[in-house]
Amino acid sequence: INHTSKQKKFIPAGSVVLEGKKCGIVTTDTINDWLVIGYTPLSLFNPKESDFARLKLGDNIKFRPINENELEVGAFKDVNHN
Predict the structure, then answer these.
(1) Boundaries of domain holding 33
(2) Is 31 inside a domain boundary?
(3) Element at 68 (helix H, strand E)
(4) For the chain, how many structural domains are there in total?
(5) Has the keyword Transmembrane been applied to this entry (predicted)?
(6) CA-based angle 50:74:8, to the nearest 5?
(7) Cα separation values, 63 from 3, 35, 47, Å
(8) What is the pTM of this model?
(9) Nearest-5° angle of CA 29, CA 34, CA 35?
(10) Rounded to whole angstroms, how far apart are CA atoms 63 and 57?
(11) Do 13 and 29 contact (CB within 8 A), yes or no?
């Protein structure tokens, strides 16, 4: 997906973004021109933990809609990709 805006903007951690043919989840607040298509309340990066990244290379991610309550409390059935 190509987007025409190259104006950089604030993108909060947890934003789901597109850039070209790549999709990503922003782990820290940043400034960029990526196209934001969604948001997750799940914290994906914690440098204080020994296993600091929740996702590993090759993981398959399935996005699903959540309601406002899940967004506010970050409720997920299982953070181990279920």
Answers:
(1) 1-45
(2) yes
(3) helix 68-73
(4) 1
(5) no
(6) 85
(7) 21, 17, 24
(8) 0.69
(9) 115
(10) 17
(11) yes
